[in-house]
Design goal:
Length: 449
């Protein structure tokens, strides 16, 4: 840990202790926090989002019992960068993770900045017990493993994707861990992570502290491997679906079932009332795997809406209004300051995200006047280069590979991003300049070591 980071954490802890002593009932009002992040969920792959061939009653129930964000974006088109933004409150490239962290060193494009004060670290200063169950994907080696970056408890998968949901291996490596210990559980990974989350939730009442549980599923990231009985059920109900589409639907429905069991555990343990639940995805659906992004253009890896716009809701019983929705712009990195404000822990260090607290409680807030940026660095046919997008208000600058020109769209009049505006316009020049300044700032941060 750097000296700067250590000093900041000490200051936050001391200030929080003083505040806590003056508010004797604070520990009773702090909610438990459950963040559910799924992997590659298509925007149209929820029945509540119009998916006509899919049934997701448990996730639908979440959206119905809280606030749905109609304009929520993952911070990147792929996994690691978005996860870095969630845990840092910063843009991925400013957290040191512009691309996917992989086992193969020559094709790994990020290193989580050691100076980042992570979300679990700052919540611990507010008295939270912190846990990660499921996918980590932000480092395979010290000092960037979960227990070293703020999680008291880790039960999950260190790596990126699983090559098989039953063996849990990645390139013949076993990345399943219980804290630092290598383990070899049996069963489908989605079921395993759900069961581990339920175990954690059932144990939580024995502790005096509130918990922050980050439940990160690998599903529905390819390979698309639903249990056979789930596939059979979908094929009987939807006989006209292609096999590829039926597998994806069954995979998501199996995931929905697991999430339902976790939500039931919260209710049965008496913790549902005082638990804030956030549901989101790390990027859009992978079209080649049979995902649906509804009416949005593009999918995973694209900077079009289908690649970065993700279904997201916040649920807190008797606090956030049932069935409410917001058109305010939100990003994954905004979850960090939002949770800090809810937990009443101050943020004294710089982050890029903004708190959505006022939006959640239906108070006036404007979030889309800011310019926001998206980027991804990748190998393979991308050649290790970056490609970008930027949005401010209804205008969005888009580039889907490093080798194509940027295009400007007006999402208000052209939501499907079909009619590019003139590259000679003042708005195009303004957006491109703002993006260039973000690139300058992010260039200060090392992303490999």
């Amino acid at each position: 840990m750097s000296l700067f980071k250590f000093i900041i954490l000490i200051i936050i802890t001391l200030l929080f202790s003083v505040a806590k002593n003056s508010m004797a009932n604070k520990s009773q009002t702090q909610p438990n926090i459950l963040v559910i992040l799924v992997d590659d969920l298509g925007y149209g792959d929820l029945s509540i989002n119009g998916g006509a061939d899919i049934q997701t009653p448990n996730i639908d129930r979440l959206f119905e019992k809280g606030m749905k964000f109609n304009n929520f974006y993952a911070n990147c088109t792929v996994c690691s960068p978005t996860r870095a933004s969630l845990l840092s409150g910063c843009y991925p490239d400013k957290a040191g993770v512009p691309g996917v962290i992989r086992t193969t060193k020559t094709n790994s494009w990020g290193y989580l900045n050691e100076n980042i004060i992570t979300l679990p670290q700052i919540l611990k200063t507010a008295g939270y017990k912190t846990a990660l169950i499921g996918k980590w994907h932000l480092g395979l080696e010290s000092p960037n493993k979960p227990n070293e970056r703020g999680f008291d408890f880790f039960h999950g998968f260190l790596g990126d994707m699983m090559d098989d949901y039953w063996t849990h291996l990645r390139q013949e490596n076993n990345y399943m861990r219980l804290n630092e210990k290598e383990i070899d559980p049996s069963g489908h990974a989605t079921d395993i992570f759900s069961d581990w989350a339920i175990d954690y939730i059932n144990e939580a009442p024995k502790k005096e502290s509130p918990f922050f549980l980050y439940l990160a599923y690998n599903a529905p990231h390819f390979p698309i491997q639903p249990p056979e009985e789930w596939l059979k059920k979908v094929q009987e109900r939807e006989p006209n679906l292609s096999e590829k589409r039926a597998k994806n639907v069954a995979f998501v429905e199996h995931l929905d079932f697991g999430i339902g069991k976790v939500l039931d555990a919260l209710k049965e343990s008496g913790q549902a009332k005082n638990t804030l639940i956030i549901f989101s995805s790390d990027n859009g659906g992978h079209l080649a795997s049979g995902a649906s992004n509804g009416d949005l253009r593009g999918g995973k890896q694209d900077m079009y809406e289908g690649g970065i716009k993700v279904p997201t809701c916040f649920v807190w019983k008797e606090k956030i209004k049932n069935g409410s929705s917001s058109d305010n712009l939100g990003l994954t990195m905004d979850i960090y300051p939002t949770l800090c404000e809810i937990a009443e822990v101050p943020v004294y260090h710089f982050i890029d995200g903004i708190s959505l607290y006022r939006t959640l409680f239906e108070k006036d807030q404007v979030t889309d006047s800011r310019a926001v940026y998206f980027m991804r660095r990748e190998g393979g046919h991308y050649g290790g280069l970056c490609y970008y997008a930027a949005r401010q208000g209804q205008y969005k600058l888009v580039q889907n590979t490093p080798f194509e020109p940027m295009q400007l769209f007006n999402l208000e009049t052209d939501p499907k991003e079909q009619i590019p505006l003139s590259a000679k316009s003042d708005k195009f020049k303004d957006m491109k300049f703002k993006l260039s300044q973000h690139i300058r700032e992010a260039g200060k941060i090392p992303w490999q070591k």
